[in-house]
Specification:
Layout (H helix, E strand, L loop, with lengths): L12 H12 L4 E6 L5 H15 L4 E6 L2 H15 L10 E3 L4 E3 L5 E6 L15 E5 L7 H13 L5 E6 L8 H12 L3 E3 L9 H9 L2
Parallel strand pairs: 1-7, 1-8, 2-5, 2-6, 6-7
Antiparallel strand pairs: 3-4, 4-5
Helix pairs in contact: 1-2, 2-3
């Protein structure tokens, strides 16, 4: 399965739904609005790795609100994902460049959107762009339209925006949510959809909020 680039066996039911929903729709920009602790970051990292394995010389761009969040992804999630990866398929981690380079020429490039770091992903091309916690990224609309969309024009790549609800009601992410809802393509999930948390645990958690 690793050699075929099929890693859905690592996903729970919600993550599998997110994965399949994205790949089954032709829409260039897709949006996921969900509560926390649903494992969406792990899921999109799996999707990034699958893309790189299935298509040599692919480029996947992953953005998050801060460089610290990107550091957390590189130090906690990817090591878990690659734990059982065959050595001949395992990418090299270019830590200073926030890049994973696969033996087949594919790359995963990561950047925070704070302090202008997103500009590092401008140019070249991309087969897949992912913005994690998009509702907390600064200047989201500009990042999507002037940095990400141009990189996918020649590859026919797609863009996935996913986030918990932003604190600001006028955040750019809200407009993407509204547009997706109008088109009938918004994937929306709450804490009650989390397969790893029981109803009793949800009640206990809410009682302490």
């Amino acid at each position: 399965l690793w050699r075929r680039g099929i890693l859905t066996w690592k996903l729970d039911p919600f993550q599998k739904e997110l994965h399949d929903n994205f790949h089954s729709r032709p829409d260039k920009i897709q949006v996921v609005l969900s509560s926390r602790r649903l494992g969406k970051t792990f899921c999109v990292c799996i999707m990034a790795v699958e893309q790189c394995l299935k298509k040599p010389n692919s480029i996947v761009k992953i953005l998050a609100p801060t460089k610290l969040m990107i550091d957390d992804i590189t130090t906690s999630l990817f090591p878990i994902i690659f734990e059982d990866c065959p050595e001949e398929l395992k990418p090299a981690s270019l830590k200073s460049k926030y890049t994973y380079l696969f033996p087949n020429g594919s790359r995963i490039q990561l950047a925070g959107t704070d302090n202008g770091h997103a500009e590092k992903l401008r140019g070249s091309f991309a087969d897949l762009c992912i913005v994690d916690e998009a509702g907390f990224c600064r200047d989201l609309a500009n990042i999507v339209r002037s940095i990400l969309i141009p990189t996918t024009m020649n590859t026919k790549g797609k863009i996935l925006l996913l986030s918990t609800p932003p604190k600001e009601p006028d955040h750019d992410f809200i407009r993407f949510v509204e547009e997706a809802e109008e088109k009938g393509i918004l994937l929306k999930k709450t804490i009650y959809d989390n397969p790893r948390i029981t109803q009793d645990e949800i009640k206990i958690g809410r009682a302490h909020v």
